[in-house]
Amino acid sequence: MLTNIDLEKMNHLMETNKDAKEIITQLLKNHDAAVATIAHEIRNPMTVLYSSMQLMSSLYAETAKGSCVWEECMDGARHMCDLLDDLTELNNGNQLNRASFPLGHVLRNSAVLFAMSLNFEKSKIEMTSSIDKNIKRFNGDRTKLEEVFLNILTNAKDALADCKYAPRLQFRAKKLDDKILIQCQDNGCGIPTEIVDKLYEPFFTTKENGTGLGLAVSKRIIEAHNGTIDITSDHTNGTIVSITLPT
Question: Is this structure's pTM higher than 0.85?
């Protein structure tokens, strides 16, 4: 997988050399096609395996319930399915189905639904949201942007799991002159400075059962919309994820 440094060098080369741009563009297309084929070939038997294990769990519930080995196998199969799904999302992150949609409504809806999920889980997190009414329609991929918003909200929730203070999460968005700024802020323990830049790298994760592809997918989706995503964090003020989209 390409690191952020590799991508920066590659983008610079494409900007300065027309022949290199054509070659790299074709190589990336071939790479994406190869990843898609491999993921597809693995997913089919993996789906059958996982479905069969779920069926066996229901047919032999008592045996499966008391077996640590069985639970480990189920967790491994579930993780593999999640990994394949995230890998496909990463591979298709820059392929957008653009249409005009009410971005302000989508942001408010995302905030409400996530707050409802916190209430359902009886979470102690205090969530607040503030969405600028001047955010109107936007031309982009609604489904993929909703995926990004859910991802950053979920990451914030996970960061508050061991919060030493009253856990708080803020989701806000406002329209500036030439862009829309969307931010998700938590007052968790923060992220060590030395790993902040690594968070966008595929398969790098600090979560025990994470695939390490969530932020990599989000970054690819936002950049496909000609936007940016940035993370600032410290142990005092927690973490802020900032997304900008062009108006």
Answer: no
